[in-house]
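Researcher: Good morning. I'm working through a list of sequences from a screen, and I'd like to move beyond sequence-only analysis. For each chain I'm collecting a predicted structure so we can compare shapes side by side. This is the next one on the list. No need for commentary yet; just the structure.
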Amino acid sequence: MMISRFVAACGAVAVLLTGAGAFAAGTDTGQDTMVNGEMHGRFGGPVYNGPPALAVTAALVKAGGGAANYSTATALVSMLGKPAVDAEVAKLTKQYGAPAVTQWLKTFDFAVNDSLKIATAAGVTLPSPAPLEGKALATTLVKAGTDSTGTFQIELLLDKAVSHKIHVQVMDDIDAAPGFGKQADLEYHLISNQAFYDVAQALGMTSVKLSPIH
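Model: Good morning. Structure tokens for this chain:
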């Protein structure tokens, strides 16, 4: 049932654009910006300055194979199942192009690994993982990244996962890292917004809205 709903959602939200044209709506302000009295991140969405939900982050890392072998693809399959993930990757490939989707997965892996490295250097150790896996973990992540307007924003999820400070440092590191750079950073945020929106629809969270930055 979940797989069929996921595939249906993929078809419903597919955009008839490929390659660079799919990124036309994306912007990078280069810094946090005040919007209607609220601070927003570089790629949209409200800034969260509270404590990170490290136990949930630890559950995601566990789903991805652990800190030493983390893989976003593995985490997605663990949460949603391989058929659903294969369908979503195919849909994103049609929407954004194969090189961008491949880079998105690489950048997501880099972001998680870099976050863990920064946290470790700061003396922060992940706690035991929260008792979340599969659809329950995916639902928790979508809820964490959904703002007060009902819109999923990857910026918000990353702030809550690792703290705003570490999130900003990771973005700077992506921008500077060989094989990544500012375009990879932009595409990481755009595709993540779309992918998590698709996941929300597949999970029956139909009230979740798609960020304009996608």
